[in-house]
Amino acid sequence: MPVVMEYPPSLATSGPTKTTAMVVMPDPRARASVTRHLWMLGIRDVVEVSTVAEARIRLATPRNLCVVDANLPDGSGPALLKYMQSAGWTGGLVLSARDDIQTVRAALAAGSRGYVITGTRGRSPVGSRVVSSPPSFLPQNSVNRVRGLSSREIEVLRLVADGQTNKAIGESMGLSALTVKSHLARIARKLGTGDRAGMVGLALRTGILT
């Protein structure tokens, strides 16, 4: 279950202010699962809703965290987070069964502090290992691996982040698709992941890609 970006520090630490959350997911079992894990973290004030419309009704009272499904029956989860940010909601986390780059970029651009790829829909969407990840999510050795990329590898990764296929990347850079595949294999070895979304997430986190 890959995770892109970091979680709000308030989820892993206790403080004088009670942490509150909202879970926006159409599947009642998924909502219940997320809520249970938030309770495990000590977040007891959790509101559950299933649609964008229901979430907007509660905008007047900002909460510390909003966990949303990327695809809601009446709209987009990332778009909802962006709207909520303008209303003073500061913590967002997107859950999705999709691991394509465009979905990840949409979530991060909307201000999501995290992105969890859940796998097949209908299964438990999140595990305690993921939710309770420490605030220092990206360790120094991961930062060093990203900074070890060559300029050509960074350019390949930038085009991957734009959602381009290996063939399109090759055409843009004057390379064969086989050469692009070789570059991606080296990037995967350096970053420790062959997942395209994971590669882009690490690069975004360190500022190599913007």
Walk me through what this model shows.
The chain has helices spanning 28-40, 52-57, 77-86, 101-109, 128-131, 140-147, 151-161, 166-173, 177-191, 196-206, and strands at residues 3-4, 20-24, 45-49, 65-69, 71-72, 75-76, 92-96, 114-117. By secondary structure, it is α/β, with parallel strands linked by helices. The protein folds into two domains: 3-131, Response regulator (Rossmann fold); 140-206, Winged helix-like DNA-binding domain superfamily/Winged helix DNA-binding domain (Arc Repressor Mutant, subunit A, Orthogonal Bundle), CATH 1.10.10.10. It has a six-stranded mixed beta sheet with strand order 1-8-7-4-2-3, sandwiched between helices. Strands 5-6 form a two-stranded antiparallel ribbon. Helix 4 (101-109) links the parallel strand 7 and strand 8. Helix 7 crosses helix 9 (177-191) and helix 7 (151-161) crosses helix 10 (196-206). The protein starts with a strand and ends with a helix.
